[in-house]
Amino acid sequence: MQVWGSGVGRGLGARTETEEDVMGTALSKTRSRVYDEVNALFGRTPQWLKLQPDGAIEGFWLQMRDFYLAPTAVPNKYKDLIGLAVAGATRCHYCTLFHTEIARLNGATDEEIAEASAVGALTMQGSTFINSMQVGYDEFRRETLDIVKYVKQQKGKPATGVPAHV
User: Fold this and answer.
1) Per-residue pLDDT reduced to its tens digit, 101-155
2) Integer Cα distance of 38 and 99 in angstroms
3) Regarding the domain with residue range 74-150, which homologous superfamily does it belong to in the CATH classification?
4) How is the chain split into domains, by residue range?
5) Cβ contact 61:84 at 8 Å
6) Going by C-beta distance under 8 Å and a sequence separation of 6 or more, which residues neighbour residue 57?
7) Could you say which of 3, 27, 130, 163 has the lowest number of CB atoms within 10 Å?
């Protein structure tokens, strides 16, 4: 089997039958280990994960296990609320279902789920408008940083003409 030509990988071109057998065994062991870990955490290995190619399944699982599912600087509930906002923006009903249910498992309320969805929608609305109007990035950046500077200077001072919650 030729993989990317002779200059890629080990640079030897096609693998021999023995290399194929060894590679296949290693991939089978990797896939089996991933399935075992997934089963231990989730009670099953979902079909969509089984569809991952051999060369991708381990990397996907390690990132999911060691970053997404692990305790990190961003609490897991927030990760799923972020994931939900992104899922809504990308219109992925698979991810919307997944992140909604996992956010609930992590303690998210219906109100938090609705707010995360609304933030995703508002971000998409602003992004669509700004990109469609072809607003210059340098101008946008300068204005944004000026706004942040102003807000920092006004910290603790009441804004006139604006509702108190802002």
Assistant:
1) 999 999 999 999 999 999 999 999 999 999 999 999 999 999 999 999 999 998 8
2) 17
3) AhpD-like (1.20.1290.10)
4) 22-70, 74-150
5) no
6) 30, 31, 34, 49
7) 163
